[in-house]
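Could you help me review a protein record that somebody else here produced? This is what I was given.
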Amino acid sequence: MRVTMNTYFHLNDFYVKKWNFIREGEGGDKTKFLTNDSDEFQVPEGAADRRLPARLKLIVQAYKEAVLDGDRKAIYELEDILFMMEKEKNELAQKVAAMSAEISSGKEKLVRLQADFDNYRKRSEKERLRVWSDAQGEVIESLLPMVDSFERAKQQIKLETEMEKKIDTSYQGIYKQFVEIMRSLHVAAVPTVGKPFDPKMHEAIAREESNEFKEGIVIQEFRRGFYLGDRLLRPAMVKVSSGPGKKKPASPQTNLVRSQLQLLESIIASSTTLAWCSLFITLQVSKRKPESTVVRLSCILVTRRKRAVKPKFRTF
Protein backbone atom coordinates (compact mmCIF):
# COMPACT_ATOMS: atom_id res chain seq x y z
CA MET A 1 0.00 0.00 0.00
CA ARG A 2 1.26 3.49 -0.90
CA VAL A 3 -0.26 6.60 0.56
CA THR A 4 0.69 10.12 -0.59
CA MET A 5 -0.96 13.30 0.74
CA ASN A 6 -0.56 17.02 0.08
CA THR A 7 -3.07 19.00 2.13
CA TYR A 8 -3.98 22.65 2.41
CA PHE A 9 -6.83 23.61 4.76
CA HIS A 10 -8.50 26.94 4.34
CA LEU A 11 -8.59 28.79 7.65
CA ASN A 12 -12.07 30.28 7.26
CA ASP A 13 -14.10 27.57 5.48
CA PHE A 14 -12.40 24.46 6.82
CA TYR A 15 -12.31 22.64 3.56
CA VAL A 16 -9.34 21.07 1.77
CA LYS A 17 -8.11 22.94 -1.31
CA LYS A 18 -5.93 20.20 -2.64
CA TRP A 19 -5.49 16.66 -1.44
CA ASN A 20 -4.12 13.76 -3.46
CA PHE A 21 -4.89 10.39 -2.02
CA ILE A 22 -4.15 7.30 -4.12
CA ARG A 23 -4.51 3.87 -2.73
CA GLU A 24 -3.14 0.91 -4.70
CA GLY A 25 -4.47 -2.48 -3.67
CA GLU A 26 -3.64 -5.93 -4.75
CA GLY A 27 -4.21 -6.76 -8.42
CA GLY A 28 -3.56 -3.16 -9.40
CA ASP A 29 -7.07 -1.99 -8.51
CA LYS A 30 -7.19 1.67 -7.78
CA THR A 31 -9.73 3.43 -5.61
CA LYS A 32 -9.57 7.15 -6.18
CA PHE A 33 -10.97 9.17 -3.32
CA LEU A 34 -9.57 12.46 -4.60
CA THR A 35 -8.54 13.42 -8.14
CA ASN A 36 -5.42 15.30 -9.09
CA ASP A 37 -7.20 17.76 -11.34
CA SER A 38 -9.80 18.91 -8.79
CA ASP A 39 -9.30 21.72 -6.30
CA GLU A 40 -12.41 20.83 -4.32
CA PHE A 41 -12.60 18.08 -1.76
CA GLN A 42 -14.25 15.00 -3.28
CA VAL A 43 -16.11 12.70 -0.93
CA PRO A 44 -17.01 9.05 -1.55
CA GLU A 45 -20.46 8.15 -2.75
CA GLY A 46 -23.11 8.10 -0.06
CA ALA A 47 -21.46 10.93 1.93
CA ALA A 48 -22.95 14.40 1.95
CA ASP A 49 -21.36 17.67 3.04
CA ARG A 50 -18.55 16.13 5.12
CA ARG A 51 -16.74 18.60 7.32
CA LEU A 52 -13.70 18.50 9.56
CA PRO A 53 -14.79 15.58 11.82
CA ALA A 54 -15.47 13.43 8.74
CA ARG A 55 -12.15 14.33 7.13
CA LEU A 56 -10.37 13.67 10.40
CA LYS A 57 -12.06 10.27 10.53
CA LEU A 58 -10.64 9.42 7.09
CA ILE A 59 -7.15 10.45 8.16
CA VAL A 60 -7.39 8.38 11.37
CA GLN A 61 -8.58 5.38 9.35
CA ALA A 62 -5.68 5.78 6.91
CA TYR A 63 -3.29 6.11 9.88
CA LYS A 64 -4.56 2.82 11.32
CA GLU A 65 -4.10 1.06 8.02
CA ALA A 66 -0.58 2.48 7.70
CA VAL A 67 0.29 1.24 11.20
CA LEU A 68 -1.07 -2.23 10.41
CA ASP A 69 0.85 -2.35 7.12
CA GLY A 70 4.00 -0.99 8.74
CA ASP A 71 4.29 1.83 6.21
CA ARG A 72 6.50 4.28 8.11
CA LYS A 73 6.47 6.87 5.33
CA ALA A 74 2.69 7.01 5.31
CA ILE A 75 2.70 7.18 9.12
CA TYR A 76 5.10 10.15 9.10
CA GLU A 77 3.04 11.94 6.45
CA LEU A 78 -0.17 11.36 8.35
CA GLU A 79 1.45 12.53 11.59
CA ASP A 80 2.61 15.68 9.81
CA ILE A 81 -0.93 16.22 8.58
CA LEU A 82 -2.31 15.75 12.10
CA PHE A 83 0.32 18.14 13.48
CA MET A 84 -0.63 20.74 10.86
CA MET A 85 -4.28 20.27 11.72
CA GLU A 86 -3.50 20.72 15.43
CA LYS A 87 -1.48 23.84 14.68
CA GLU A 88 -4.23 25.25 12.49
CA LYS A 89 -6.74 24.39 15.19
CA ASN A 90 -4.72 26.34 17.77
CA GLU A 91 -4.37 29.26 15.37
CA LEU A 92 -8.08 29.20 14.72
CA ALA A 93 -8.75 29.02 18.47
CA GLN A 94 -6.56 32.08 18.97
CA LYS A 95 -8.38 33.89 16.19
CA VAL A 96 -11.71 32.89 17.70
CA ALA A 97 -10.55 34.19 21.09
CA ALA A 98 -9.36 37.42 19.48
CA MET A 99 -12.64 37.79 17.61
CA SER A 100 -14.57 37.06 20.83
CA ALA A 101 -12.56 39.73 22.63
CA GLU A 102 -13.21 42.10 19.75
CA ILE A 103 -16.91 41.29 19.87
CA SER A 104 -16.94 41.90 23.64
CA SER A 105 -15.10 45.17 23.12
CA GLY A 106 -17.55 46.06 20.37
CA LYS A 107 -20.45 45.29 22.70
CA GLU A 108 -18.93 47.50 25.39
CA LYS A 109 -18.42 50.26 22.84
CA LEU A 110 -22.01 49.81 21.72
CA VAL A 111 -23.24 50.04 25.32
CA ARG A 112 -21.17 53.18 25.90
CA LEU A 113 -22.39 54.62 22.62
CA GLN A 114 -25.99 53.95 23.59
CA ALA A 115 -25.41 55.55 27.01
CA ASP A 116 -23.78 58.57 25.38
CA PHE A 117 -26.68 58.84 22.97
CA ASP A 118 -29.21 58.66 25.82
CA ASN A 119 -27.32 61.38 27.70
CA TYR A 120 -27.17 63.49 24.56
CA ARG A 121 -30.90 63.01 24.01
CA LYS A 122 -31.64 64.02 27.61
CA ARG A 123 -29.36 67.06 27.36
CA SER A 124 -30.98 68.06 24.08
CA GLU A 125 -34.45 67.73 25.58
CA LYS A 126 -33.41 69.71 28.66
CA GLU A 127 -31.83 72.40 26.49
CA ARG A 128 -34.96 72.56 24.34
CA LEU A 129 -37.17 73.00 27.40
CA ARG A 130 -34.82 75.65 28.79
CA VAL A 131 -34.87 77.63 25.54
CA TRP A 132 -38.65 77.35 25.37
CA SER A 133 -38.99 78.43 29.03
CA ASP A 134 -36.65 81.40 28.50
CA ALA A 135 -38.60 82.55 25.46
CA GLN A 136 -41.90 82.17 27.31
CA GLY A 137 -40.51 84.00 30.33
CA GLU A 138 -39.32 86.93 28.22
CA VAL A 139 -42.76 87.29 26.61
CA ILE A 140 -44.61 87.12 29.93
CA GLU A 141 -42.15 89.48 31.60
CA SER A 142 -42.80 92.06 28.89
CA LEU A 143 -46.53 91.89 29.73
CA LEU A 144 -46.13 92.44 33.49
CA PRO A 145 -46.21 96.28 33.26
CA MET A 146 -49.75 95.94 31.95
CA VAL A 147 -50.64 94.07 35.16
CA ASP A 148 -49.18 96.95 37.17
CA SER A 149 -51.25 99.45 35.19
CA PHE A 150 -54.46 97.54 35.91
CA GLU A 151 -53.59 97.33 39.61
CA ARG A 152 -52.88 101.06 39.88
CA ALA A 153 -56.04 101.97 37.98
CA LYS A 154 -58.08 99.77 40.30
CA GLN A 155 -56.69 101.57 43.37
CA GLN A 156 -56.72 105.16 42.10
CA ILE A 157 -59.87 105.51 40.01
CA LYS A 158 -62.89 106.78 41.95
CA LEU A 159 -66.17 105.77 40.37
CA GLU A 160 -68.93 108.37 40.58
CA THR A 161 -71.36 107.84 37.69
CA GLU A 162 -72.99 104.74 36.29
CA MET A 163 -71.10 105.14 33.02
CA GLU A 164 -67.78 105.11 34.87
CA LYS A 165 -68.83 101.99 36.72
CA LYS A 166 -69.71 100.24 33.44
CA ILE A 167 -66.37 101.20 31.92
CA ASP A 168 -64.55 99.98 35.03
CA THR A 169 -66.45 96.68 34.88
CA SER A 170 -65.38 96.21 31.25
CA TYR A 171 -61.75 96.92 32.06
CA GLN A 172 -61.81 94.61 35.06
CA GLY A 173 -63.32 91.86 32.88
CA ILE A 174 -60.39 92.19 30.48
CA TYR A 175 -58.01 92.09 33.43
CA LYS A 176 -59.60 88.92 34.83
CA GLN A 177 -59.35 87.25 31.43
CA PHE A 178 -55.69 88.22 31.24
CA VAL A 179 -55.09 86.79 34.73
CA GLU A 180 -56.70 83.48 33.72
CA ILE A 181 -54.42 83.26 30.69
CA MET A 182 -51.41 83.89 32.93
CA ARG A 183 -52.53 81.14 35.30
CA SER A 184 -52.90 78.70 32.41
CA LEU A 185 -49.23 79.40 31.60
CA HIS A 186 -48.29 78.47 35.22
CA VAL A 187 -47.67 82.08 36.27
CA ALA A 188 -48.19 82.64 40.01
CA ALA A 189 -47.89 85.69 42.27
CA VAL A 190 -45.20 85.89 44.94
CA PRO A 191 -46.71 85.69 48.48
CA THR A 192 -46.01 88.87 50.43
CA VAL A 193 -48.06 90.30 53.34
CA GLY A 194 -47.72 88.21 56.49
CA LYS A 195 -44.88 86.11 55.08
CA PRO A 196 -41.25 86.16 56.27
CA PHE A 197 -38.99 88.31 54.14
CA ASP A 198 -37.05 86.24 51.59
CA PRO A 199 -34.36 88.07 49.57
CA LYS A 200 -34.75 85.48 46.80
CA MET A 201 -38.29 86.63 45.99
CA HIS A 202 -38.73 89.94 47.87
CA GLU A 203 -37.13 93.35 47.37
CA ALA A 204 -37.32 95.48 50.52
CA ILE A 205 -37.65 99.20 49.81
CA ALA A 206 -38.75 100.31 53.31
CA ARG A 207 -38.74 99.26 56.95
CA GLU A 208 -41.24 100.30 59.59
CA GLU A 209 -41.95 99.61 63.24
CA SER A 210 -45.03 97.52 63.82
CA ASN A 211 -46.77 96.25 66.93
CA GLU A 212 -48.84 93.80 64.86
CA PHE A 213 -46.05 92.02 62.96
CA LYS A 214 -42.78 90.61 64.23
CA GLU A 215 -39.43 91.70 62.90
CA GLY A 216 -38.67 90.44 59.38
CA ILE A 217 -42.33 90.02 58.36
CA VAL A 218 -43.67 91.68 55.20
CA ILE A 219 -46.33 94.23 56.16
CA GLN A 220 -47.08 95.94 52.82
CA GLU A 221 -46.74 95.23 49.10
CA PHE A 222 -45.87 98.01 46.63
CA ARG A 223 -45.44 95.95 43.46
CA ARG A 224 -46.43 92.35 42.83
CA GLY A 225 -43.84 89.72 41.97
CA PHE A 226 -44.41 86.70 39.75
CA TYR A 227 -43.18 83.14 39.26
CA LEU A 228 -43.16 81.13 36.02
CA GLY A 229 -43.18 77.60 37.33
CA ASP A 230 -40.07 77.47 39.53
CA ARG A 231 -38.44 80.45 37.83
CA LEU A 232 -38.72 83.94 39.37
CA LEU A 233 -39.72 86.49 36.73
CA ARG A 234 -39.37 89.48 39.05
CA PRO A 235 -39.27 90.01 42.84
CA ALA A 236 -42.02 91.73 44.79
CA MET A 237 -41.36 95.22 46.20
CA VAL A 238 -42.38 95.20 49.87
CA LYS A 239 -42.15 96.98 53.22
CA VAL A 240 -40.71 94.94 56.07
CA SER A 241 -41.50 95.18 59.77
CA SER A 242 -38.66 96.08 62.11
CA GLY A 243 -40.62 94.91 65.16
CA PRO A 244 -42.26 96.94 67.93
CA GLY A 245 -40.55 100.25 68.75
CA LYS A 246 -38.64 100.91 71.96
CA LYS A 247 -40.54 102.64 74.79
CA LYS A 248 -39.36 106.24 75.30
CA PRO A 249 -38.63 107.45 78.86
CA ALA A 250 -41.28 109.70 80.36
CA SER A 251 -40.57 113.46 80.27
CA PRO A 252 -40.73 115.69 83.40
CA GLN A 253 -43.98 117.21 82.18
CA THR A 254 -45.48 113.75 81.87
CA ASN A 255 -44.41 112.94 85.41
CA LEU A 256 -46.07 116.17 86.62
CA VAL A 257 -49.30 115.24 84.89
CA ARG A 258 -49.20 111.82 86.49
CA SER A 259 -48.72 113.30 89.96
CA GLN A 260 -51.61 115.69 89.38
CA LEU A 261 -53.82 112.83 88.30
CA GLN A 262 -52.93 110.89 91.41
CA LEU A 263 -53.73 113.95 93.54
CA LEU A 264 -57.02 114.40 91.74
CA GLU A 265 -57.97 110.79 92.38
CA SER A 266 -57.16 111.14 96.07
CA ILE A 267 -59.29 114.32 96.33
CA ILE A 268 -62.22 112.66 94.63
CA ALA A 269 -61.94 109.75 97.04
CA SER A 270 -61.55 112.04 100.11
CA SER A 271 -63.40 115.17 101.22
CA THR A 272 -61.08 116.34 104.00
CA THR A 273 -60.09 119.96 104.39
CA LEU A 274 -56.41 119.15 104.20
CA ALA A 275 -56.89 117.53 100.81
CA TRP A 276 -58.71 120.58 99.53
CA CYS A 277 -55.93 122.84 100.74
CA SER A 278 -53.32 120.68 99.00
CA LEU A 279 -55.26 120.86 95.77
CA PHE A 280 -55.61 124.64 96.11
CA ILE A 281 -51.86 125.08 96.57
CA THR A 282 -51.16 122.82 93.58
CA LEU A 283 -53.54 124.79 91.40
CA GLN A 284 -51.94 128.08 92.45
CA VAL A 285 -48.54 126.72 91.43
CA SER A 286 -49.91 125.32 88.16
CA LYS A 287 -51.46 128.61 87.04
CA ARG A 288 -48.19 129.50 85.39
CA LYS A 289 -48.68 126.50 83.02
CA PRO A 290 -52.18 126.79 81.65
CA GLU A 291 -51.37 124.32 78.87
CA SER A 292 -51.69 121.46 81.31
CA THR A 293 -54.96 119.67 80.59
CA VAL A 294 -54.93 117.98 83.96
CA VAL A 295 -54.71 121.34 85.75
CA ARG A 296 -57.68 122.71 83.87
CA LEU A 297 -59.62 119.53 84.55
CA SER A 298 -58.70 119.82 88.24
CA CYS A 299 -60.04 123.37 88.35
CA ILE A 300 -63.36 122.25 86.94
CA LEU A 301 -63.64 119.34 89.35
CA VAL A 302 -62.67 121.53 92.31
CA THR A 303 -65.28 124.13 91.37
CA ARG A 304 -67.95 121.48 91.16
CA ARG A 305 -66.77 119.96 94.40
CA LYS A 306 -66.92 123.32 96.19
CA ARG A 307 -70.46 123.83 95.02
CA ALA A 308 -71.46 120.43 96.34
CA VAL A 309 -69.50 120.47 99.62
CA LYS A 310 -68.19 123.65 101.23
CA PRO A 311 -65.60 123.02 103.94
CA LYS A 312 -66.00 124.99 107.16
CA PHE A 313 -62.96 126.86 108.45
CA ARG A 314 -62.71 128.00 112.10
CA THR A 315 -62.32 131.74 112.46
CA PHE A 316 -60.06 133.38 114.95
DSSP finds six helices and eight strands in the chain. Confidence is low (pLDDT under 50) at residues 1-50, 287-291, 309-316. The two ends are 186 Å apart (CA to CA).
